[in-house]
Amino acid sequence: MTFFENPENRGHESIHQFCDAQTGLIAIIAIHSTALGPAAGGCRMWRYDCEADATRDALRLARGMTYKNAMAGLPLGGGKAVILTDPASPPTDETFRTFGRFVDSLGGRYITAEDVGISVDNMRLVQQVTPFVAGLPPAEGSAGGDPSPWTADGVFLGLCAAVKHRLGADSMDKLRVAVQGVGKVGYDLCRQLHAAGATLVISDVNDKNLERAQADFGARLVTPENILFEEVDVLAPCALGAVLNADSIPRIKAAVIGGAANNQLATEEDGKRLFERNILYAPDYVINGGGIISVSLEYMGDKTEADTRAQIALIPGRLTGIFVESEKQQIPTNEIADSMAEAIVAAAAAQP
Ligand code: NAD
186 C-alpha to center of ligand 1: Å? Predict the structure, then answer.
């Protein structure tokens, strides 16, 4: 099978591979769609086993960004960059400037920002050579900066809508919530859940992050192997993708699932598995859209934190619309969300 015969690789507008002999940088930028506007999505720096794995990741994540940006109501398409790391030659400042030049060479079709493995300081270096970058420290009161707290805000509000819909609960008070991964987003989500009166069970593979959340929120600790299967009302995956799969879903006890992690469903079929088990799944790219809302308002300029907050406040309503439609049509929530996103993109693509 050739690259473009694989259905997974179809539907993207372009894929760009970059290599720089001087810094050793190898980067891939996938542009899934520019129908709604420039393709926006973060840059992930990761140690991939091979270039094919990195390419697959970039393509999958770029498509996800098209859906996420469409459902967040943003005038942006979907794209993603990945930088392949090599422990033998760690990145230098020049590596990030070189990456910025690659981004710049696309003339604004792709806008970059932070993702896993990339810091605000890295993006400052990118900004030295291209304007097509966001996720930079904002001026006081302006939109932008680290997207993680905004992502956590959207997830918290989305979970409130989900428990209202499924459990009839008016708040998170006394609800039991399992949070997988208490990093940047997971920790901030725990802070909000704790303040709202929820009882927390947490897990992480990073002891420092785990101890911090336990100390600050009195959370109970469980092993990474058990966190998905706790006796809780809500499960919030905030670590990795593909955690909801044929093996895990039959053992999940939560009534509601919603969290920050991208690509939580291993396959589309897993959305159906959750639906058949009557577990309410908040589609990941809808509930975790707070970060990209912040990034995009920063990029547009002249926007404030209040604008960001106002747009994030729309996430719970969007989710409730998906939940209602899912019940009406008896179709899993992930399929409803995909159809909605595809309709938004198709309408934009049909504009002359
Ligand atoms: P992070 O790296 O700060 O936190 C992830 C945490 O998960 C870390 O503490 C890590 O140790 C932990 N972890 C890794 N493997 C684990 C396992 N097997 N079990 C339990 N914990 C494990 O990342 P983040 O920025 O908080 O993002 C979390 C997730 O949300 C990622 O999947 C990311 O792609 C996604 N996301 C983040 C944002 C954002 O604004 N940061 C926006 C949208 C989506």
Answer: 7
